Amino acid sequence: MQKVKIYFAVFIACLFTIVACKKKDEVTPTTPGKFGLTQMHTNQRVHKQVVDGVTYVPYQSAKNQRTSEVTNFDLGNLKASKSFYFILSNTGDRAITDVTIESNNPQFEIFPKTIDKLAGASENGIVPLLELGVIHGNRLNGVGFQSLLPMGDNTVEVTIKGKTQGENGEEAVELKAQVKLFAQVMDVEFYKNGEKIDLSTFTRVSGPFAHESGLSSLRLYVANKTDAISVKNVGNVNIQLKYEDSPNTTVINKPLATEQELTLDNFSDLLIFALDGGGAMTPYSTLQLGNDGKAYMAFQLNK
After folding, report:
1. What pLDDT digit, counting tens, does each position of 235-278 carry?
2. 286 contact partners, CB below 8 Å, separation of at least 6
3. Are residues 168 and 75 in the same domain?
4. Of all helices (H) and strands (E), which one includes residue 243?
5. pTM attached to this predicted model
6. Could you tell me which of 42, 43, 29 has the C-alpha nearest to residue 120?
7. Core-most of 44, 113, 218, 293, by most CB within 10 Å?
8. Range of the domain at 101
9. For residues 220 and 176, what is the distance between their CA atoms, to the nearest angstrom?
10. Do 108 and 238 share a domain, yes or no?
């Protein structure tokens, strides 16, 4: 009986030792909150939920998080307005509060602009999805034309700020994301006898040829059949140029590379032009887009 008591006492002592060691192992260092940012690609499928108007995704979705105070993203080529999505996470143990997100370019709209709290990574919950809407020609939400981005390289700085608890109390936490993209624009200039034609000044012509464009009428410009008419690609995308007479008995298709100038054949009293830049936006003041993404116009050639 005495041996049983001894064995029992030894067992209890070992049990307390194991529990104590386990509790000791469970104590992990607590690090201040730190922002992490990940771009979510269009083919990435994740479960989403909306809380107070903000979209959240599981923390596990935030792979390849960029946590440096200044990080860079290259969004590639942009033909028209588009939204890009980023997962904002907290890679530290302590929460980040009073989060603000700002863009330094009004054509790069960020949503949401504020978040009350971003839980620590140890909580392994949900994290917010940021939407960066880039305005380049067409409206992001609705119909109509907005301003174009400057042709070529564009960069915006997105600044994310918040507060977290450090070793000495509350401290600021910040991440700056440098986001760049290449804005594509289809644009041309027409010349008459070497002089540039003002494409912003025009009249209108309607007819059965407009069915392809979905437009009820086309912008009409006037020249003489004896004039030398040429077109130059002043955008940064290659253009497939088609022009034909009305009622469509002769059709000419020619490629027009960037900076290339092409002299046209004046073979009709009325020429209809269609310019295809692969879906790239155009300056609305000079080119009118049809429903198919091509630009259309007409030239009346007087004798």
Report:
1. 999 999 999 887 667 889 999 999 999 999 877 888 889 999 99
2. 187, 188, 199, 200
3. yes
4. strand 239-245
5. 0.82
6. 29
7. 218
8. 35-183
9. 49
10. no
